[in-house]
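Long-time lurker. I teach an intro course on protein structure, and each term I like to show students one example going from raw sequence to a predicted 3D structure in token notation. This year I'd like something fresh instead of my usual example. Would anyone be willing to generate the tokens for the chain below so I can use it in lecture? Attribution to the forum is fine with me.
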Amino acid sequence: MCTSLTYENGRGDHFLARTMDFAFELGGQPVFMPRHQTIHGDAGDFTTKYGFVGGGRNLGHYVFVDGVNEFGLGAAALYFPQYAKYQTEAADDKLGLAPHDFTAWAMGNAKSVADLRELVKTVQLLDIPVSLLGLTTPLHYIFSDPTGDTAVLEATDDHLQLIDNPVGVMTNAPQLSWHLQNLSTYGTMQAAERPLHDYMGMELKTQGPGTGALGLPGDYTSPSRFVRTVFNRHYSETAADTPTALNTLQHLLDSVTIPKGVKLKPDGNSDYTQYRGYMSLDERAYYMEPYDNLELQGVKITDKMLSDWDTPMEYPLDHTPHVSHLN
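-- Reply from a regular --
Happy to contribute to a lecture. Here you go:
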């Protein structure tokens, strides 16, 4: 399970960030994919036009779960169990894609969210498993670009379309429309304190600050993570620049980051936040923060990479915890 959110700093720069929560070790790392590639996807070959960088792994071909392309289009795939519906085969006039290949196809072929709105009409997602897991991954996707345009794709029938996301947050099941309606349950919460009222002449004493958010859910279910992220995103102080925006996003994701052992599956394995990914859309940069090293490790797309490189490049992560000694 995962959480994602968009963010805008005080200069108008846009960001997309996410947690990658899973029990099975995915082994992702930053990978740069050059322009004009033919990818041998699990539903058949597809081509890309644009370069992009993101969290990927070579499974015979590179599979990406998030990233940003040369135009600043950011993407992230999140689990969508019991709701994703895929086709058995593609229509004659459409390109069939495995769900786990859709993120790479989108970043490799769309310049913006508006561009992607039209392009998704030409593809269908097929019920094809990913080799790493041996199952078809139920996914939905969030996209954002440097204009702030943000949308979600949920494959609930054979017709794919992007859904506007007014709050810039996505978690897991149920559908986005359900999560947006559920926000009304928490619509009276605020950052400011709420005054206490006397009851039958009894003067109530405070239990401490934080009453504005009293009732904010603190568990790790998808609905609770959605509400908590919307609240914190809405009330957090606006960061001035890119470094402080990335730092703010780290703090925002802290409230939904899952430590090992606190969220157990029926088989006894623990879902946990294997990494946190940060897409700096205007900067065309991707930062990854693995579970065991909370230092951001980034790759920025350069003009030279776009013009000269024709082979994918992997960037191994440093998993050593960093501690600074001040004496």
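Some talking points for your students: Residues 94 and 122 are 5 Å apart (CA to CA). The chain has a mean pLDDT of 95.
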